[in-house]
Amino acid sequence: MNVPFHARTAYGRPETPVRSPRQIEYDLFARITQRLTSTYQNRQQDYPAFVQALNDNARLWRTLARDLANPGNGLPDPLRKKLCYLAEFSLQHGRKVISAEAEVSVLIDINTSIMRGLRGEGEVR
């Protein structure tokens, strides 16, 4: 048995580049934002999928808020505060979207802004 070969194939392709935490965060935001967009457009046919996308967005923001509250988080305090505010706003707004009191486009815009920041195209305002 060729153990090194099996280990490589079991744990991934060796030529696959290692992604940075920033790239991973970007990919999460991109996937969830795409799902918010597509499930919103099809919400009449599959409303549970839309609610699941909103719940996944909320889970992402709760996870980020926990990380931002960690004293070991290396982001500058002003940026952490802004992101914490966006997390709280996104969570509240998502609840309003579910109860048909608000539009999902606000969440999509916030996530898109975060994605631009993760790509280095500007800062969070």
Structure description:
The chain has 125 residues and is mostly helical. The chain has one domain: Four Helix Bundle (Hemerythrin (Met), subunit A) (Up-down Bundle), CATH 1.20.120. Helix content is 71%, strand content 0%. It has 5 helices and no strands. The protein has helices at residues 3-11, 21-41, 47-69, 77-98, 105-118.
Summarize this entry quickly.
It contains 5 helices and no strands. With 125 residues, the protein is mostly helical. Helix 2 packs antiparallel against helix 3 and helix 3 (47-69) runs antiparallel to helix 4.
How do the helices and strands line up, and which of them pair or pack?
Layout: H1 3-11, H2 21-41, H3 47-69, H4 77-98, H5 105-118
Helix pairs in contact: 2-3, 2-5, 3-4
Name its key features.
71% helix, Four Helix Bundle (Hemerythrin (Met), subunit A), 125 residues, mainly alpha
Any idea how many domains? 1
Quaternary: single chain
What CATH architecture label applies? Up-down Bundle
What is the structural class?
Answer: mainly alpha
Strand content: under 5%
Total helix count?
A: 5
Q: In whole angstroms, how far apart are the ends?
A: 56 Å
- What helical percentage do the residues reach? over 70%
CATH class: Mainly Alpha
In total, how many beta strands? 0
In the CATH hierarchy, the third-tier topology is known as: Four Helix Bundle (Hemerythrin (Met), subunit A)
- Shape call: globular
Strand count, sense and barrel status of the largest sheet are:
none
Rg calculated over all Cα atoms: 18 Å
Query: What string gives the helices and strands in order?
Result: HHHHH
What's the rounded overall pLDDT mean? Answer: 89
Low-confidence stretches: none
